[in-house]
Amino acid sequence: DSIIVQVDRQDASIEAGRKEAGLCPQESVGLSDMQVFRRVKCDERRPHCRRCTSTGRKCDYDSSLSPQSVTRATSVTQSPVSNPRLSPCLDEQEGRALDFFRSVTLPQVAGTNHRDFWGKLILQGAHFDEATYHALLALSSVHENYVTGKDVGARLDAFALKQYNMAIRDHLDVLTVLSRSDEVERPFILPCSIIFICIELMQNHFKSAILLLRNTFTALSMLQARDKEKSLDHIKTGSTDQELLLSRLQFQARALVGPKWGHTYRLRPIIAHAEIPPSFSSVGEAKDCFHSQTYIHGPSGKTKDSPEKPDWPSRYKTALDAYLSSHTSPLSLKDNHRLRLIEIHLLTIPLVPKLNGPNSSSNPVDEMHWDQYTSTFSKILDLVASTIYDLDTHLAPSFSLDFGIIGPLGILTSRCRDPSLRRKAIHLLRIYNRQEGMWHSSLTANVAERLVKIEEAGLVEVEHCTDIPLAARVSEVRLHHDLDQQHVMLCYSRQQSAMESVRIHVQEKIAYW
Q1: CB distance 493 to 503 below 8 Å
Q2: DSSP for residue 74
Q3: 213 compared with 17, residue with greater pLDDT
Q4: Which of 74-78, 90-94, 285-289, 293-297 has the lowest mean pLDDT?
Q5: Angle between the 419-432 and 441-456 helix axes, to the nearest 10 degrees?
Q6: Helix, strand, coil percentages in the chain from 3-state DSSP, rounded to 5
Q7: Distance between CA 420 and CA 94 in Å, rounded?
Q8: What top-level branch of life does the organism fall under (predicted)?
Q9: Band of residue 429 on the pLDDT scale cut at 50, 70, 90
Q10: Residue 458 — left, alpha, or beta (φ > 0 → left; ψ -120 to 50 → alpha)?
Q11: Orientation of helix 374-391 relative to helix 419-432, angle to 10°
């Protein structure tokens, strides 16, 4: 009944990073040799170590040690991280990493919608949980390299590698204890796992990230089976942000690897806004309700008994309009940004069911019907442009788990045939320079440019969407990440020729950057 986390081996660059960190393969525990450890390291908590007592071991920790010897994680919130020298338990590099996390990583990764998860739960985890503390330091270091353009997609630097290995080692200690006991505290297992996934994604290690995500769901499923009479909220801290983040990552993983992902894991969060009210009382309530509705009606939240409510976006828009009409004071920049993102997705969600239809020689997909949504595509682009330029997010690389604009722009560029709108969308993707979970603006732009080239090939002049005939249009556009070969395939179907209505399926390699 052990919970085992196992991830494929990393490349040689990580091994080189281990040597720089002064760690030999036998001493380090990276993703290459991730497995359950039987040794439980004393956490030096007074008067008795929690890890030792939970495993029935006698704690040899000397309770007479001075207060300065308590764990570093306990001191994280006791002193301002902006001046790490104020804390005798933090060295300069750790203090700097904590400062960078709070000032840069936290607001960027959280976006405008997950501040409670990253700003409260993760920081609480760093205070009480060794694994989360070291994972936070590793994430901060990797993210600093990411936003400055150093070693993106390459290897971890020595400090990040050391912290990452320590986080993995402590995390596996907790999983080992958890596999043997029903009563052990476990509120930070999921937050720590999400940090690990972020670290892998920022290095473009999609295979490791997807395997970590799958193993996270597997561990949670085992916990659910063992705690059938309890809600999943009992297993973790009571924040739906975690479940929403995981459900979005699962959606992206399924889109990238297709059937290889397997069955859809369903979580059981406590939904605070299951019903849409006549009006909202604040932008925060509107945001929370939107998240809840996207979860309830998404693949992770649906069950065979779930009622179909395809009209929920229009009902939500009615409630949002009622709030805005009664709200007379100006909205903050953050609230305006939140509402723009919500409106972008409200316009996009009704398009999703229309993306994939029957496709056979006897019942071909009519790609011409997308032309009727040209005005919708134009509204989406205006909202996206104002979001990017107002927040000035197009200057440096950025990473976030927040829902954003790459997904909507991906749908737009694959289905909108208006040449002006399509090229404007590609331009926005190019200057956005952003990664949202497993989706990257550069890859989405490359796909869009390839589709334009395919569909406009041989056409003398394209000034309007109607200038692209059905025979030239592609359908069933999707990306497939070959995790073993580490490349991305663009998959689509197209008419064999202008004279033959039979559609053929095409796969071709696409550049990521």
Answers
A1: yes
A2: G
A3: 213
A4: 74-78
A5: 160
A6: 55, 5, 40
A7: 49
A8: Eukaryota
A9: very high
A10: left
A11: 30
- Residue 397 has a pLDDT of 84
Partnered with residue 509 across adjacent β-strands are: 489
Dist CA 263 CA 278 (whole Å): 36
360-397 pLDDT tens trace: 444 556 899 999 999 999 999 999 999 888 766 556 78
Low-confidence winner among 1-10, 209-218, 276-285 (lowest mean pLDDT): 1-10
Q: For 416-499, where are the alpha helices, taking DSSP H only?
A: 419-432, 441-456
Q: pTM, whole model, 2 decimals? A: 0.78
Strands (E), 14-167: none
**Cβ atoms 476, 493 nearer than 8 A:** yes
Radius of gyration over every alpha carbon of the chain, rounded to an integer in angstroms: 25
- Burial profile 325-351: b = 16 or more Cβ within 10 angstroms, e = fewer: eeeeeeeeeebbbbbbbbbbbbbbbeb
| Cβ count within 10 A of residue 393 | 19
Half-sphere exposure of 462 (CA within 13 A, CB side): 19
DSSP state of 120: I
Phi/psi for 139 (5° steps) reads: -60, -45
Neighbours of 133 (CB within 10 A): 27
**267: exposed, middle or buried (Cβ count in 10 Å: 0-12, 13-18, 19+):** buried
- Between strands 434-436 and 439-440, the pairing is antiparallel
One-letter amino acid for residue 510 of the chain: I
Report the amino acid identity of residue 297: H
State which amino acid sits at residue 204.
Answer: N
Domain locations along the chain: 12-255, 330-510
> Who has greater pLDDT, 273 or 341?
341
One-letter amino acid for residue 448 of the chain: A
Structure tokens at 309: 């409510």
- How many whole angstroms separate alpha carbon 512 and alpha carbon 444? 9
Q: 225-239, 324-338, 450-464 — which is least confidently predicted?
A: 225-239
